[in-house]
Structure to design on (291 residues):
């Protein structure tokens, strides 16, 4: 069944700020096998000119879809998760993410298009600090296989 | 703070040194825990095969992270990556053996931009498959 186009433009905000911790960055760096000390050691990060440890470029995936789940899981949207694969991902940065940041993410279902038998859904995540400073934007394209038939 | 590679010293069309990254089942278990993506296709062979996959496959985001690691290692600073996007074009199949799978990454400087930035285009392969396409990073050099 085709996805409900009424959802295009709907925005969902993360219910609480995401607190970026040194330990979470260290855990994520370990999981991707990256031994860079700037992810693991605050002193090394400071020696390199950063205020604290830096998050790897793909780190926002940890929290950037938290708000969007509300929309994507809405039965009215019509998404069959068992057929979903990750199609594309992009992060653009206004500034790096550091341990200690308190971040909010507003996720918007920005586009739905059919390509052949598949439905492509783009979710844009606008990440800011709790004070409203822009930090990064995530573009997530999920593909529902067979959804457009 | 900043990259160790100088913009003045790189050229359009320059190839970056290739790198290989091993991925074994334990890496996917760790990535599931760190990212919160517990989809069983990434750790449960029985489930993966039941939905028609050849075996357990890596998270696309795990593969993307290896491309990110490639770029940040080259640039010399994780914060130098100001834009990074990929298309997931094929699966990285991770067998349950002592080797797992290999992700081979290479890159080329496609364009020099103003403000000491460059566009790096990445190629990532596993076996015969190109696992990332349209993979590009904008990197702030020194």
């Amino acid at each position: 069944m085709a996805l409900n186009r009424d959802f295009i433009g709907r925005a969902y905000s993360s219910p609480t700020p995401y607190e970026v911790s040194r330990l979470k960055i260290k855990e994520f760096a370990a999981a991707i096998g990256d031994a860079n000390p700037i992810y693991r050691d605050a002193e090394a990060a400071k020696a390199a000119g950063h205020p604290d440890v830096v998050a790897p470029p793909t780190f926002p995936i940890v929290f950037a879809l938290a708000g969007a789940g509300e929309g994507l899981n809405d039965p009215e949207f019509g998404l069959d998760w068992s057929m979903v694969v990750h199609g594309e991902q992009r992060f653009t940065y206004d500034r790096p993410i550091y341990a200690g940041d308190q971040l909010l993410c507003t996720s918007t279902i920005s586009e739905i298009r059919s390509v052949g038998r598949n439905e492509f859904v783009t979710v844009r995540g606008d990440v800011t600090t709790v004070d409203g400073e822009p930090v990064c934007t995530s573009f997530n394209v999920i593909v529902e296989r067979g959804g457009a038939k | 703070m900043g990259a160790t590679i100088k913009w003045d010293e790189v050229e359009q069309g320059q190839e970056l040194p290739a790198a290989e990254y091993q991925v074994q089942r334990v890496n996917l278990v760790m990535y599931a825990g760190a990212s919160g993506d517990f989809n069983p296709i990434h750790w449960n062979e029985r489930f993966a095969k039941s939905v028609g996959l050849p075996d357990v496959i890596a998270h696309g985001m795990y593969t993307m992270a290896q491309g990110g690691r490639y770029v940040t290692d080259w640039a010399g600073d994780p914060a130098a990556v100001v834009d990074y996007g990929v298309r997931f074009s094929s699966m990285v199949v991770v067998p349950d053996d002592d080797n797992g799978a290999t992700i081979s990454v290479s890159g080329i400087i496609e364009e020099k931009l103003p403000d000491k930035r460059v566009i790096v285009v990445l190629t990532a392969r596993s076996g015969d498959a190109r696992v990332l396409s349209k993979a590009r990073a904008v990197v702030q050099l020194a």
Remarks:
- The radius of gyration of chain A is 17 Å.
- The domain at 5-20+57-144 of chain A is CATH 3.10.129.10 (Thiol Ester Dehydrase; Chain A).
- The CA atoms of residues 86 and 142 of chain A lie 5 Å apart.
- Chain A has a mean pLDDT of 94.
